[in-house]
Amino acid sequence: MCWPSLAEGLPLKLAIYDTGFCPETLALKPNIKIQKIVFATKEFKIDCSDKNSPRLHGHKVLETFVNNYSGKKIEIYPIVIFDKEGIQKIDYWENAETIVLKNKINKVLSASGVPLKDKVDVKLSSKVFYYLASGRIEPQLKDMLYLFPRDFLDKKSRTIVGVQTTFKESILKDPMTFKPEEVDVWEEDSKEKFSGSSYGVTAYTAKNLSISFP
User: Fold this and answer.
1) Are 100 and 108 contacting, i.e. CB atoms less than 8 angstroms apart?
2) What is the number of domains present in the chain?
3) Count of CB atoms within 10 A of residue 29's CB?
């Protein structure tokens, strides 16, 4: 299901959920507009001086999307879902969805997720389509059974993206992928510092939307 804006020829709207953003540092093509940062948490100041800070993971996602997108006019809504302490909660995801629905945003890109040991009774709107990173079996996911929202969405409402690497004629899917059997798309990984499923879902989303909305 899509919002009327697409049918009316208005810009595509994409929300990016992540840690933090510094959009003023990016050079934008004429077809891309970045809206003011919105906080799904209590608002705080983002330090843009340390490009290697975990806080700026979201900025790397935003930058990668901008560099790979070549489709119709698009408005990007950066939404912070990690609080000042660097913690994300399902409450913040619900707050973010309220923002998305209010602004009639078409798609959501997120390279983040909340690791869980147990299922939760939270339903996200079927009006929103999610592009989600597969996640990797790292310390925060090692003993977890679920990753919110990827394990709580109808398959029609999301695409899960993992990464693979090509060696000559061989293709190696990331062996640390969380629940690889549920991955919908395998994107070629980056050889740069920003890599893994965070890169994969971002690059795939930019390319997919460029083709779908040229």
Assistant:
1) yes
2) 1
3) 11
- DSSP secondary structure of the chain: ---HHHHTTPPEEEEEEES---GGGS---TTEEEPPPEESSS------S-TTSGGGHHHHHHHHHHHH--SS-EEEEEEE-B-TTS-B-HHHHHHHHHHHHHTT--EEEES--EEESS-------TT-EEEEE--B-STTTTT-SEEETGGGS-GGGEEEEEEEEEETTEEEE-TTBSSGGG--EEEEPPSSSS-HHHHHHHHHHHHHHHHH--
Cα angle 121, 102, 120; round to 5? 10
Label residue 56 exposed, middle or buried (CB < 10 Å: 0-12, 13-18, 19+): buried
Cis peptide before 149 (omega within 30 of 0): yes
Could you tell me what percent of the chain has a pLDDT over 70? 96
Whether 76 and 33 have beta carbons less than 8 Å apart is answered as: yes
Least confident residue range of 138-142, 152-156, 196-200? 138-142
Range of the domain at 91: 4-212
pTM above 0.90, yes or no: yes
User: What pLDDT is recorded for position 123?
Assistant: 87
User: Token digits for 200?
Assistant: 């994969």
Q: Which residue has the tokens 């979201």?
A: 58
CATH number at residue 182: 3.40.50.200
Q: Which residue has the tokens 């919105």?
A: 38
Q: How far apart are CA 90 and CA 193, in angstroms?
A: 29
